[in-house]
Amino acid sequence: MTLLGVEGLSKEFGGLRALNELSISVERKELVGVMGPNGAGKSTFFNCISGVVSPDDGRVIFDDKDITGNSPETLAQAGLVRTFQHTRELETMTVRDNVRLAAPGQPGERTIPALLHTESMQEQEQKVRRRADELIEAFELDHLADEYSSNLSGGQRKLLEMARVLMLDPELLLLDEPFAGVNPTLTQEIADHIRDLNDEGMTIVIIEHELETLTELVDRLIVLEQGRLLVEGVPEEVLSDERVIEAYLGE
Ligand SMILES: Nc1ncnc2c1ncn2[C@@H]1O[C@H](COP(=O)(O)OP(=O)(O)OP(=O)(O)O)[C@@H](O)[C@H]1O
Known about the structure:
This is Probable branched-chain amino acid transport ATP-binding protein LivG. This protein is α/β, with parallel strands linked by helices. The chain contains 9 helices and 10 strands. A 6-stranded mixed β-sheet has the order 6-7-8-3-9-10, sandwiched between helices. Strands 2-1-4-5 form a 4-stranded antiparallel β-sheet, with helices on one face. It is globular. Bound molecules: adenosine-5'-triphosphate.
């Protein structure tokens, strides 16, 4: 069953067609990789799905609903969540607070005075704290929980970013270059987490330049070139496809 459907998506930037009538679908519980040479339209594809930019043409269907142009907040509530190539944690906050504050409607955002601090709000806060602690432990960040996130390495920041998005309990997770700038040990750790999440039933789409890890991880590869779908299929076949080799050689 299809969870995400992209139909005839187009986006121009000053006459340059970043996406050119792109149509792709992702099945529930699939783990899909998106690759393509620089400028192929991969980020624009994610940006159009996740409400960061509005497409000029075409539709995005998520869970049988037309979500074209919906805001990132609305999409997160619906279960569609993304990470960014450059992580977006708050450097002046600890790892623990960064994870807690990623929860929807978390206490830090409330302006209601303490007098109105009801029992149900306290319960909700406790739930957020418990979930944050679980994720910090699952991502082996416990020894860093009270560190400012500015003290984290690139790889540790990627783990923190994953913990943060999981606070939103996504059904579809879009990961933008989760292995970029990450050392080999942490790359393997992040790949294992992605596989576990997918085994638990989460649908995941990954943009990545690090093709070795990507092809080992995913069920299916989608290759974009000049805003169009070039080739898709099982990783071994896609990587040996003449058109793909040519697209990368021409970079
Ligand atoms: N906000 C923008 N304004 C102007 N041009 C843009 C914008 N976003 C993307 N583009 C252009 O659209 C084309 C596709 O870019 P995009 O970032 O989607 O490709 P990509 O496949 O993600 O590339 P990379 O692998 O280098 O990140 C590029 O030519 C890029 O310069």
